[in-house]
Amino acid sequence: MAGTILVVDDDLFFRQLATDLLSQRGHRVVAVENATLALEEVSRATFDLVLTDVVMPGVDGFALTSRLRERDPEQEVILVSHRTDVQGSEVALRLGVADCLTKPIEEADLLLAVDRAMERAQLRHERSRLQDENLEFARFHNLQQRCLELLSHPDLEWLQERVIADLGSVCDAQSAALWVVDDRGDLGLRSYRGLLDKQFLPEKMSPEGPLSLRLREALPWLARDERSTVLYVPLVAAGEVMGLAQLSDPLTGDFRAEHTRDAKVLADFAAVGVKNGRKLLALQRLGLRDRDTAAYNLSYFTDYASKEIYKARRYGRTFSLLTFSIDNLPLVRVRLGASEAKKAVRGIIKALSKIIRDSDVIAKASDQEFYLLLPETDFFGAMMFVRRAVAAVRDEPEVQDVEQRLPLALVGGASTFPKDGEDFDELVHRCRRRMDERRASLQRRLMLDGLPFWDEVDLLLGTPNSPRLPTDDRAEPSRRGKVADVLFDELQVEIARELVRDPGSRGLLYVGGPEIRADLPLAVGLEQAPPDLSSRIYLLGRRVDLESHPALTPVFLEGDERVARHEFILWLSESASYALIQRRGRGATWGFHTSDTAVVDGLISKLQAEYDLQPY
């Protein structure tokens, strides 16, 4: 059997003799004159057999054999020497050489020794090939099992965790992240593990733009970040992008071709699994809806909420829970009949369904109470949703038809994970407390909902002879009467400090008065504010000298006498709600101030409608 042989001997005659003899037997022979050249040849190519002289200048045959065995412990070596004591010597035995031949060598002895060595080398090559095939088969079988499991478990939450675990395993990656397409077509971060810092992972990515071509190719690609190579693996099923995985920190120092190949196979199955999981979820939702209202039942909602709580804890996310109640539904049922009560409930659910996202879930908790879960929504976003929900309900034709005969007492409350609680019961309890606060609110007690902004201002301010405002221990305090002249300025200073202290807090702030000036305490206090304030801040009044401000949006109201006669601060944020309205007179400043969230929210909503200001 032919092979590759390296002949090492300082004797030119022997090198030529061995080369000619072995070449005639079909072997490819390379001959060199010393050990240094031999090591260079071995570094460039692999030889089945090394035939080396023992006694050579410089590095002898024993030392060469030792060096060869360090590189490959199974390297076949035949020693050749004029010395008769080499065969069977301790050194030769210790080095494990294939054979020792004494010069002058008989042709038959050389060929026999070479054939034996080549046979052993061939057997080792065959064994190594079988081992590689077995390892490859085991690897492929393992990959196949992983792929089948991804298709056999339609639960999306399980899939998202399993996909990055499997991709990380087959690619020897210590870190992995997964973005999955949402109902709006964006890629949202769903899972990550390893050495990644979440703050450097985008929450959402658009599959369009620069990323589009890569995703549509449906092939993994390599990129380089500051630390190491990153492997991106698109999840595409039948041309539809289902997700994108990011793998980094490979244990081997870099990603190899087999990593890319296996990741592609696994990603194709994962994409189908995710697609099937989304379809099954849609079917489950269809089968778990209330027959009359199409809202989900409570058992499905609580299961969905528990999964959302797990995700929020695992990945440091937030979500909001909302509760809505038709407080006078029993009265509607008695006065107008059961069919009208059902119509009212159906209309409310229909109105809410029009403004929610595909990822939001609404459920019927009882005949008159509903739950709504808003993933990835903070408390301020939940408050804004409650406002939108009430407005949408009022515009729904079925609700309007019922309210022509009997107004519906719809009240909503919101809570946010983990700000208001870390389990479902705590969040529901907090929602109901806020619903109680709204029921006791001055907004409801004075029936302010239908009043325009300035009519409500006049009612809340009243006069010194007006009766005292009604109070309730459950509601936030509201007061009217004489206020200090400096209160308006001092409040602006305090609010500016709070906004600078927590620039990431979302909120709305309206400050109105006769004039918009550059020396207003709020404008001065926010001069050093970071440019990325999350709160939106508006100044309303007549233009004086404020041209532009990085944190403020001026709304110039020229010739509006109502603004000229009043000063007001309306502030609604994740952590605060406050309103101050005052009217300066000759003797004293008369004002109204409150921390009643429903009143503040109502005033802001009506102010936006009065002056056509864009809602948050």
TrEMBL record:
Protein name as annotated: Response regulator
Residue numbers of 4-aspartylphosphate PTMs: 53
Statement: the UniProt record of this protein carries the keyword Membrane: no
Domain Response regulatory: 4-118
GO BP annotations listed: phosphorelay signal transduction system
All residue ranges annotated as the GGDEF domain in the record: 317-451
InterPro entries: Bact_response_regulator, CheY-like_superfamily, GAF-like_dom_sf, GGDEF_dom, Nucleotide_cyclase, Rev_trsase/Diguanyl_cyclase, Sig_transdc_resp-reg_receiver
Organism this protein belongs to: Corallococcus terminator
Pfam families: GGDEF, Response_reg
Keywords: Phosphoprotein
